[in-house]
């Protein structure tokens, strides 16, 4: 890449990679108050004209020489070689565009864009401006990895009573029993933490697992409001989504309380309810501590989006054929879109996904 300056004798002539920008800077300077005052001062420098400058310009006037109708800037010596850019929003957008998004720029990123741009141009708070511009770059958002790969922990709701909410899992690879079964199915009441176990063969499927649930849980405790489960190889689990490990409600269950109790029975019920409230508070406090510890270890992706917002969709959990023709290649984009947010469901969003992608629209 050529130098930002060409030297003619002892003069430094600004020559940025995009010379057409200089004409834009000149035209904007004619309408910028500070630039006009400095140009007028250098046209006829004197102590009287210097006193007419604003205080912030008067103290730094030695840093702003003029060359070919352009204000130059140097913070440390007299070799001023950076063109001063007036406070014009459109111009400040076009200049980073040429250094970040131009055909020959190659999207170098924040630090390199700032390095290249500041060799040719100067304005106040330049680094902050470049940082915001590069952060909003659509191409960069598509290909760069997200700074927080994990969203904040979405804790499961606290159960209100025993066997209202259970968790279920399958464990394999255990020593075989007398019937050559090497796995177990585990049912856990999330309120009391009671555990029920049953041996299963390694090739167990959904139907025998469901029969075990009916025999061990439903027969004694009724139907839970929700069942939390993780993906298990070889078993088609109900109410499971890899991207949303919280399973939805299975069925609504109304509990009727007969109020024809004696005073002693009512007192017993109240004592039981006090114990239940204590357990609820303890579980909620434990869940809060777990969430706090998890969020302190890099879970910083807590963005929320509004309906009709445009968002990019991460491709790490999508089938490769829906992303691009690159397959498993590292050249495949990390994000696709943008898509319009159609609805919000708690922490999930329904997007306007084209039907040709054959994807469920809620993520």
> How many strands?
13
How many helices? 10
Query: Nearest-angstrom radius of gyration?
Result: 33 Å
Proportion of beta-strand residues:
15-25%
According to CATH, the fold-level topology of the domain at 5-136 is: Endonuclease III, domain 1
Strand order of the largest sheet: 3-4-5-6
Helicity range: 25-40%
Domain Integrase zinc-binding: 88-145
GO molecular function, one term: nucleic acid binding
Domain Tf2-1-like SH3-like: 327-363
In short:
The protein is α+β, with helices and mostly antiparallel strands and 363 residues long. It is built from ten helices and 13 strands.
Report on the structure:
With 363 residues, the protein is α+β, with helices and mostly antiparallel strands. Among the domains are: 132 residues, Endonuclease III, domain 1 (Orthogonal Bundle); 101 residues, Nucleotidyltransferase, domain 5, CATH 3.30.420. The protein has ten helices and 13 strands. The strands form four sheets. Strands 3-4-5-6 form a four-stranded mixed beta sheet. α5 crosses α7 and α6 packs across α7. The protein is elongated and about 100 Å long. The N terminus is likely disordered. Pfam families: Integrase_H2C2, SH3_Tf2-1. GO terms for molecular function: nucleic acid binding. InterPro entries: Integrase_H2C2, RNaseH-like_sf, RNaseH_sf, SH3_Tf2-1.
